[in-house]
Each structure stands twice: as C-alpha cells, then as structure tokens.
Amino acid sequence: MLVTAKLYPDEIPNWINGQERKSANNELFDKLRPADGSLMCRVVRSRAEAVDQAVVAAKQAQPVWADVPAVKRGEVLHEIVLAMKAHQAEIARIVAEETGKSYKEAYGETGGAIALGLFYASEGQRLYGRTTTSGTPNKYAMTVRQPVGVAGLIIAANTPIANVAWKVFPALICGNAAVLKAAEDTPVTAWIFGKLAHAAGLPAGVLNVVQGYGEEAGQPLVAHPDVDVISFTGSTEVGRLVQRIAGERLAKISLELGGKNPLVVCDDADLDNAVKWVVLSAFSNAGQRCAAGSRIIVFESIYEQFREMLVARTQMLKVGPTDDDDFGPVINETQLKNMLTAIERARQSGALILTGGEQLSDPAYGQGFYLSPTIIERVDRRHEISEQELFGPITILYRVKDFEEALALANDSPYGLTASIHTRSLHRAIRFCDKVQAGVVVVNAGTYGSEPHMPFGGLKASGNGTREPGTEALDVYSELKDVYINIDPSQL
Ligand code: NAD
Predict the structure, then answer these.
(1) Radius of gyration of the chain (CA)
(2) Rounded to an integer, what distance in angstroms lies between the CA atom of residue 43 and that of residue 162?
(3) For ligand 1, is residue 219 a contact (CB within 6 Å)?
(4) C-alpha 263, offset from chain centre
(5) Which residues pair with 397 in a beta bridge?
(6) Three-class SS of residue 321?
(7) Nearest to residue 473, comparing CAs of 205, 225, 153, 240?
(8) Is the Cβ atom of 176 under 6 angstroms away from ligand 1?
(9) What gap in Å lies between CA 74 and CA 76, rounded to an integer?
(10) What is the DSSP annotation of 80-94?
(11) What is the mean pLDDT of residues 67-81?
C-alpha cells in the first residue's frame, strides 16, 4: 500500500473528501530540507477556495460520522493507530527529513503520537457525561457529550506527527469532522497521516488536510462560518489574531501558544541532574518546543559553579541531523535569521554570550539552518530577549539571591506555560508547585515531558485557558447537553 522506495510524491496535494486534490491554479510552494537547504518537494498553495471545499466536505460528512456509535468511531481510530504502527518507520523518515531532527528522535515522536491515538481510540468506550440528582421528585438529570460540528485544526511544525495526533484524534472521537491546516514547514507528515487515515477506513470527508500558508489557508479556515470549533497551536501573536477573528462569530476556540519557561536551580539542587535537564530543556529538538527551558534562574551561591558546568556540558553537544547528534537545525531560514538578530540585539545592549550565538556554517552543514547552542547572561529582565519567545536553541541565565526572588522572577513573564525547579527541599518544591504561574510544573526534571493522557496548556499569553490532550481535550471538541427525564408514577 504505502511502502514504496519514494515515500511521498514530488507535489504534495490536499486531502479533500477522501481524495488527493492538486492545486486548482497550479500554485505551489517549495518545501526545503532544514538539514541542508535542498528542495524536498513542492506543495499545494491552498487559498480560501480550497479551504471552502474542505469545509463543505467536512460539513457533509459530519452528521453521518456523528451517528456512528462512539465505540465504533474508536474502532476506526484504532485502525488508524495500527496503520501508524505498521508504518512508524516511514512516518519517522518523513518527520526527520522535513524537520531535520534525527530519525531516532522522529521515531520516538511518532511513538508518542501512536500512544496518544490509542488513548483517544479507547475514549470511544467512555466519553463520560454525568448522572446526578434532581431537586424535583420523579425527575432524572444527566449530561451527555455531543459533537461540536466541523473542527478547524491549525498546527505548528515543531513536532509534526505529535501535533497532528494531538488534535485529530480527540476531534474525531467526539464525532466531529475536521479540516486540518498543516504547518507549511511540515506538509508531508500531514499528507501521509491523511493517506493512512483514508486507507484505514476513515469515511471520506471526516478528515480533510489542507496545505498552505497561514494567512492564505489558515485564516480563511478561522473565518469560515461553517467551522464550529477552532483549535490552534502556534505563536501568541497569531493566536491573538485567531481569537479576534473566530471570536467575532463566537466560534469555540482553543489556543495552545508560546512559552518562556523558567527552570530554577536552588542551592540545594543535585547540580549534575540540573545541568542534564537544563541542556535537554533548552536544546533538545533545537529548542523548538513551546515548553523549552529558556530562562534558567540560578541561586547566586552556586551560580559560578553551575554556569561552568553548564557551559562545559553545552560545548560537548553535537549538532547535526544524525542519530549520533544531540539536536538538528531549526525549521527554516527565517527562523534562523530572527534568532541571530535577537542575539545580536542582546549583545549590543550589554548581554554576554557565554557560548554559541552563531550560525554553524562548516561545509558539512551545507546550506542547512543550524544555530550553535547558545547561553546568554547579563540580560536585563525587561529586555525583549527576556520576554519574547525565540523558539530555538537559546537560553538565558539569571542570578537570584534566594527562593522568593527566584519565584518572583519565574512569574515575571508575559507567558505561563511550563516551569521546573531543582531542589532537595520538599518545602521549596511544594511551595514552587503551588505558586508558580504555569499550566505544567515539574520537580527535578525538565520543563517539558508532558504525557498524552494529561491535560496540557498555559496561563497568561500561553493560551486561553483550554487544555489538550488528556480527557480535558474532550471539553474542547464536544458540547455538553443536559438531559432531564420526567416520569409519571401514576402511569405505571
Ligand atoms: P505560527 O503562529 O507562525 O504558525 C502556526 C500555524 O499557524 C501554522 O500552521 C501557520 O501556517 C498558521 N498561521 C499563521 N498565520 C496564520 C493566520 N493569520 N491565520 C491562521 N493561521 C495562521 O507559529 P510557528 O512559528 O509555526 O510555531 C511556533 C509557535 O508555536 C511557538 O510560539 C510555540 O511555542 C508554539 N507552540 C505551542 C504549543 C503548545 O502546545 N502550547 C505546541 C507547539 C508549538
């Protein structure tokens, strides 16, 4: 079926109503390989017309899909999961090629997407509502879940197969039909997922995949009057726009946005463990995680020692696209240039670049988009580099005198996504978990590492209060309906 020497076509089409659709007017854009800057494929550049076709297909398919019992919907999703398992190697090869991350990492990410799919396939046997009491005799009260309708799903490119699974599986188990707008930097992963879902028996129109740029294909989806729920994962800036446009027509919205996540290292921390987790939080996946550790807050009594250990460990990292490397390139040239500019502006305002800060341009990297792992210190807490997410392998060290100052600095951010503390003190750990302004908090590990059955999301500029995945994502993709049943005992 899928397995051929060539994993994907030269021109990546949309999936609309169970069919591959090329561009109506032959408009295509180039997708480059981040590892060496070479052309990977060309991709349909969809605009409002293609989005409308996808929404029409979804709207038509949705009531029929909603009438399939949830348990049976779960069985169809299970078939998709089995197809993903059977093709895990091919998916991982595509993810690796289009992101530049190693095959090993891409394989692990695909495993995470499979675990998430399994979790939601099984939700078909639950989809719990609530039964409760009534204040009136002979009256029964309960709540049931109903689909919202057509779901518009917009995703970022950083972990492409996980991002697809994170939205598509909960949307479909709840009985919605979906239009997925793939990230323009990772079109092939979304395409192969559409292909696997179709081959696994998902009815035509239940999942449509639209390729294209944000403004041209994403925005018409957000604005479309027949899209009932929008779930968006991306930057805070675009999230605000999505909220404005979809809010105008009172569509349901879930926003999973950026982070500038603090990791606190206390004077009683296991410093080896802290260094290990700072490196992973800041640099794994080339720092392209909403949950990346980008503000490292260190007690002054151990600051110099910790800085020395961290810089030494960071300078040992290997950057490149193979399984022997620690992390790969960033996703595109624009991202790379934005980061180099941000580093330069920080330098000009007095920051010290302890290590990194440069594009890696050794001939072995070709035209790839590599940034050396970068650690910065002496940055003003109000400087833009302290406040804006960079989404790359860059982290900043801050020096604080004690726990209270560390907590205050951790919370002094426009974002509130994830946070971590390294300490041996139960008192500090619990106080931090209690008071830090974040949707996820971790003791003695990284700022990332959430599990598929747990709700994820952030406060402040990191989101709008919703949580995905976990069972909490069901609240995004379903509406609650109260059902009251009155009986008349005289009729018995
Ligand atoms: P981005 O906001 O530029 O793009 C994300 C998606 O939105 C893409 O598919 C893009 O095409 C689309 N888009 C862009 N403009 C649009 C518009 N006007 N209307 C509709 N859609 C539009 O973000 P990015 O740089 O690709 O991704 C990185 C961001 O995603 C970071 O901020 C990161 O923190 C965030 N992210 C958050 C989570 C989370 O769960 N909180 C997870 C992964 C990534």
Answers:
(1) 24
(2) 21
(3) yes
(4) 20
(5) 296
(6) coil
(7) 153
(8) no
(9) 5
(10) HHHHHHHTHHHHHHH
(11) 98
Is the distance from the beta carbon of residue 258 to the nearest atom of ligand 1 less than 6 Å? yes
* Residue 54 in this model has a pLDDT that exceeds 70: yes
- Non-local (6+) Cβ contacts of 211 within 8 A are 12, 13, 14, 43, 44, 45, 46, 182, 184, 187, 190, 191, 217
Taking a C-beta distance cutoff of 8 angstroms, is the pair 211, 182 a contact? yes
Q: Is 0.70 surpassed by the pTM of this model?
A: yes
The ligand 1 atom at the shortest distance from the C-alpha of residue 185 is 26
The owner of tokens 């639950």 is: 126
How far is ligand 1, taken at its centre, from the CA of residue 300, in Å?
Answer: 36
CB 99, CB 186: distance < 8 Å: yes
241 lines ligand 1 (CB under 6 A): yes
Question: What interhelical angle do 70-86 and 88-99 show, nearest 10?
Answer: 70
Instruction: Indicate whether 424 pLDDT > 90.
Output: yes
**Alpha helices by DSSP H, 261-320:** 271-283, 300-315
- What's the pLDDT band for 6 if we cut at 50, 70, 90? confident
CA distances to 124, 127, 147, 317, 386 from 64, rounded to whole Å, are 16, 18, 12, 52, 50
Amino acid at 348: Q
Position 214 scores a pLDDT of 98
Cis amide bond preceding 469, omega within 30? yes
CB neighbour list of residue 400: distance below 8 Å, 6 or more residues apart: 297, 298, 299, 300, 406, 409
Angle between helices 160-173 and 103-123 (to 10 degrees): 10
Candidate of 31, 235, 254, 333 to mutate for ligand 1, largest count of ligand atoms within 8 Å of Cβ: 235
Single-letter amino acid, residue 388: Q
- Residue 256 a catalytic site member: yes
Task: Write down the catalytic residue from 256, 377, 389, 468.
Answer: 256
The strand pairing partners of 232, in sequence order, are 154, 255
